[in-house]
Amino acid sequence: MNSVWDDVLAALGQRLASQEIDKCIRPLVPVGITSSVIRLQAPNKFFIDCLSEQHLTALRECVASVVGPRQLRFEVNSNNQGELFPLKSFARSGGKPSAAALGTLVPKHTFANFVVGANNQFAHAAAQAVAKQPGEQYNPLFIYGGVGLGKTHLVNAIGHAVLDRNPAAQLAYLPAETFVNELISALRRDRMEQFKNRFRRVDVLVLEDVQFLAGRERTQEEFFHTFNSLYETRRQIILTSDTFPKDIAGLAERLRNRFEWGLVADIQPPDIETRIAILGKKAELEGIPLSHDVAAFVATHIDSNVRELEGSLLRLGAHASLQKVPITVDLAREVLDAALKSKRQLVTVDAIRSAVCTQFSVRPTDLISKRRTRDVTVPRQIAMYLCRKLLQASFPSIGTLFGGRDHSTVIHAVSVTERRMKEDPGFQATVERVERALAS
Ligand code: ADP
Ligand code: MG
């Protein structure tokens, strides 16, 4: 077992910098191996999250090169009741280690690598201001926007910039989910004092995806106190979410209120010029030769989110280099076609209905029922609108799918929804969120 692990470490040595290995891989302890699985013990769940985000592929491939393909199974070392985060092992990737950092920043997510467009200009400016004077101007900074639009990138950029200016700054960067899990574990082990102190000591706290706190009263209460304590001592708080604070259902009023104390900035989907610029930037970073024509082609066809845009570019680069052909518009069409088709096929009436039900907390039967209260008519109209838009279904057939309604009702639903989207940006964002949920 141990010699296998040594070989894996050696193989990883070919791919990762030695400080990365020391930080992210060495703390793992191999505890078992079978013909299909290798079990690794990690100091805590947070460690596993960080590792999974950055080096999972490398680790998996190196394991495969030593003993053949194995599933990796991580376990948390339950004896490690002391430190929630072994801090020393969690410095910033690549840069000078900052001993008190909690969590790991993504090295590539810097301001220099972030493309500014009309869709994110405001959030970007706010992020830069906060990075310059943490705790001084906009506290908290609350950034919201749909999936894959650059929230995580932007808050990482703040973290890098803060540490560049002041390497001694104590920065905590973590998803709300980790905060929840760590709190639960601290409660269970009767270690609330340590938990509190740890978070209240930092200069900058970045908590990602706070919509995850919804409905978790105990965590919200604890976070409320953490928030107050940081705020009062003028430490910077940075939050991200998929919605505006007011729209996070199940969030205590006093927290929601505090989330709006500072500056709330949104990130919208990028327009075509920004998408082209992002592709150009990523191509440059990845060393993929990309002409403007191809960038424009890809940007025209992938309009949902930046993560997908990036994925398409990487796929394109991989195809070109495997087939040893240049990246042309024809190649792009060929490579993206499969992806675009499978995406189209995935959307069904049922998927639309269930995405709408999830978004608005209504039941599928509400959508076909005769009920006409606003809480069900609006979701029903949106579902009809999406069936029209995404499936190009005929008005009468949509009527049939929604409880045998007349085609004129469907026409009305579609036009009302379109008009509301024009008039009300919040409503538009909601509909687009459902649409994105369908696309992902
Ligand atoms: P979110 O946290 O909003 O879901 P991410 O920050 O993870 O989104 O962004 C998804 C991917 O898109 C990341 O790889 C990120 O680098 C990239 N990205 C998003 N917006 C931009 C931008 N404006 N410039 C460069 N890259 C971007
Ligand atoms: Mg994110």
Structural account:
The structure is a single chain. With 440 residues, this protein is an alpha/beta fold. It has 4 domains: 2-76, GMP Synthetase, Chain A, domain 3, CATH 3.30.300; 96-267, Rossmann fold (3-Layer(aba) Sandwich), CATH 3.40.50.300; 272-345, Helicase, Ruva Protein, domain 3; 349-439, Orthogonal Bundle (Chromosomal Replication Initiator Protein Dnaa, Chain: A), CATH 1.10.1750.10. Helix content is 57%, strand content 10%. It has 20 helices and 8 strands. It has a 5-stranded parallel sheet with strand order 5-6-7-4-8, sandwiched between helices. It has a 3-stranded mixed sheet with strand order 1-2-3. Helix 9 links the parallel strand 6 (204-208) and strand 7. Helix 1 (2-13) packs across helix 4 and helix 18 (395-401) packs across helix 19 (407-423). The protein is globular, with a radius of gyration of 24 Å. The structure holds adenosine-5'-diphosphate (ADP) and magnesium ion (MG). Residues 109, 113-115, 120, 145, 147-153, 278, 281, 306-307, 310 line the site of adenosine-5'-diphosphate.
Class of secondary structure makeup: alpha/beta
Could you please say which CATH topology of the largest domain applies here?
Rossmann fold
Q: How helix-rich are the residues, as a percent range? A: 55-70%
* CATH class term of the largest domain: Alpha Beta
Mean pLDDT: 88
Beta fraction: 5-15%
Outline type: globular
